């Protein structure tokens, strides 16, 4: 199928795609603000200028669009890198596939590099995918985020959570993180 736009029209359409203040990002920001969690936006001194920075929790939240960040993308270099059987928001375009494949691979590589840099700096890094903010999954995703932030805050303040071992405590942190970072299997 050929493109219905001329190259000039396509350029105009693509130039209007936002990278900040997207609808998914605004949903997360409004939820956090409503629950008393204060944040900074796109902090310049952090790698990749993360979408949401929670200094009190020493945490950054990346709100990723499924298409632009390759949620469900699979290639030779990135076999099922962002595997997600429930996400149908990513579909490689049928025209200019070489260009789009390379672009998505570059985006994934950049995301991984920034994630490693932030983690090495001691930041907790959470990724929320656009598909996790669909109405059916939104409440579980955002409440899982809030639970995880509460656990991080308690840990940072040195609050004992009543667990017998560090392994159990780490298991609880992973479980809370996974409750919003993975797709629900409903």
């Amino acid at each position: 199928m050929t493109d219905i736009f001329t190259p000039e029209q396509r350029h105009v359409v693509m130039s209007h795609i936002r990278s900040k203040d997207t609808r998914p990002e605004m949903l997360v920001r409004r939820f956090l603000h409503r629950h008393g969690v204060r944040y900074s936006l796109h902090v310049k001194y952090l790698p990749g200028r993360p979408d949401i920075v929670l200094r009190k929790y020493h945490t950054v939240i990346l709100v990723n669009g499924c298409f632009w960040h390759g949620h469900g993308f699979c290639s030779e270099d990135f076999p099922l890198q962002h595997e997600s059987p429930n996400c149908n928001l990513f579909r490689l375009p049928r025209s200019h596939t070489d260009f789009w494949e390379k672009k998505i691979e570059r985006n994934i590589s950049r995301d991984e590099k920034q994630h490693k840099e932030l983690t090495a700096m001691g930041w907790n890094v959470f990724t929320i995918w656009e598909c996790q903010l669909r109405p059916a999954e939104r409440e579980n995703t955002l409440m899982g985020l809030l639970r995880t932030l509460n656990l991080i805050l308690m840990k940072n303040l040195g609050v004992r959570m009543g667990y017998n071992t560090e392994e159990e405590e780490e298991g609880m942190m992973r479980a809370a993180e996974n409750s919003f970072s993975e797709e629900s299997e409903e």
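The longest helix spans residues 97-120. The chain has a mean pLDDT of 80.
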